[in-house]
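Quick one:
INPUT:
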């Protein structure tokens, strides 16, 4: 199991990879507003029927970018590794969210799984759709997706 520091390092590198391979490095500046560009990128791929052709690494790097925006813009958020989900998660005192899963849903289901909405909710330290709520009794699944 990777440490939180190792997870954060890998996610930062994947996020930077997404910026350089996206074709829009001037727009992807790790701000909340840049997530609109990620949503538009997915929309254009879906319109061109090329979403199926996206390799797993691109989806992972986009998920890392979404999570890294939450981490950089939200003082209470950090990367961690969730053993149960076997995935990197962005954790705040209130929730654990899985940006990679959200990106996958955005690509396969469509715009109702807005990446921008996911990030904005997380930055308000509210429970994003399909995140897990952290309580004094442990972690429980949130509502949503």
């Amino acid at each position: 199991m990777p440490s939180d520091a190792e997870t954060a390092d890998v996610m930062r590198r994947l996020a930077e990879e997404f910026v350089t391979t996206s074709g829009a490095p001037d727009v992807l500046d790790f701000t909340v507003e840049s997530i609109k560009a990620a949503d538009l990128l997915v929309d254009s791929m879906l319109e061109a029927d090329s979403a199926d052709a996206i390799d797993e690494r691109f989806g992972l790097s986009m998920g890392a970018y979404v999570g890294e925006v939450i981490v950089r813009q939200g003082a209470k958020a950090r990367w961690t590794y969730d053993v149960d989900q076997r995935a990197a998660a962005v954790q705040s005192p209130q929730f654990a969210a899985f940006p990679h899963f959200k990106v996958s849903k955005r690509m396969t289901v469509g715009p109702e799984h807005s990446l921008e909405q996911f990030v904005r909710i997380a930055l308000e330290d509210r429970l994003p759709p399909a995140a897990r709520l952290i309580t004094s009794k442990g972690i429980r699944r949130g509502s949503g997706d």
